[in-house]
## 1
Amino acid sequence: MRPLQQALVKTWTLSQLTIRCLSLSLLIFASAGFAQSSLLESVKRNPAEAKALCQSFRAMNSNGQSALSSEAINQLASQRNLSTTNAEILATYVIGLHCSDVR
């Protein structure tokens, strides 16, 4: 194979690999975004769930604990079988919309 042909084959192979990696990355990010969206939608559609979380957060506050502390987030993640990132997103969302007095 001539050098020019070798370069073209390498370029084509790299472009195919790049396209596959980008496609996989988009799929992963889209899945994560959908999971977060459905998590927030469940609380939005069920105000009683948000109210219960607010009561739990207020109880933490009355004990001197922040609802967004690492212990509180880990507890929420464990109770709801969430990642700590999703638990923090959920807590922030609920506090912002339903119980802004919680710290």
Note: Residues 3-45 form the longest helix (43 residues).
## 2
Amino acid sequence: MVSEPNGAVEVRPSVVLIGPPGSGKTTVGRVLAKLLGVGLRDTDQGIEVQQGRSVSDIFLDEGEARFRELERAEVASSLSCDSGVLSLGGGAVMDPMTAAALAGHTVVFLDVGIADAATRVGFNQSRPLLAVNPRAQWTRMMEIRRPTYERLATFTVLTTGRTPQDIAAEIVQRIEQPGLEQPGLETDETGDTRE
């Protein structure tokens, strides 16, 4: 929550998690919410509850455009009324209105490699955008989405080969100590990071 100059209290998420399928947004979100003592809101789950059916069914029955419309509304609502950890669906940030709405929020990009993503999600049929040739689709999706994830992120956390507890602990540490360098990266004299 943030106090406004007029004394009103603005409700806003503690942290917004973004990243591709398999990055651990929901799993890490649960652990992070517990560490922060707040709730977790997963926008995909919110849509499923509201619509009474799965994301896959919405994609199949009404198409991606309809799902993205529902997602845009769910994210907007969550950003304005939820004070916990908010986990966005992997493609939510590709909507310009959603991307703009993230300005001013603490946004964490959970970055992951394809090997860990494949292990975590199994590239099963519940992921409609990964239904046909999932490895190639995931790689193509990341080529398109990565610049947006990176542009919107307050900071990035690498999740490859790490436990949800370790990832969540790093996020808490970096929120509590802004400017903390990311493990595994060095900062050069210009302030740029390199591995």
Note: Residues 183-195 have pLDDT under 50 and may be disordered.
## 3
Amino acid sequence: MPKSILAGIDLAASSDQIIAAAQEYAEAFSAKVYLVHVAEVGLIPGDAAIDLSLLSDPISGPDLPINVDRDDEAVRLRAEHRALQGLKTKLSDAGIGATALFIEGATVEKLLLEIDRLDIDLVIIGSHSPSFLRDFFSGSTMKEVVREARCPVLVLPPPSD
């Protein structure tokens, strides 16, 4: 029986579905829920992530590429943080012990670190594609988490339109 649940939240359409499943499992097993959103900082057009460690000056900090506006990036990160806090409040208002964790970095790496650090018993994540089995075999965050996590992973199909 899970006592600690990690809900991987990417703030896409599937987030409500993930929250509902996390609430259902938390109520059934009196479990605590950790809502984890990993923000990949320094996204450039096309959503290609860049490795900020390669661009950082240890004294002055990261030197974002010319096409990444620092103000836009800050606005995006604040909006994501507020949205995550709103989802936490939704669970807390339902009587679920919930903690929201907003983490910057590479999604799979950070999720796996939190699974271990928090001693998670169950992970709940969503799929984006209607053919989520194809995604599983072709490579995705979902595939990596399922393959590498040391606990059961519940993968929810994308919400129906």
Note: The domain at 4-156 is CATH 3.40.50.620 (Rossmann fold).
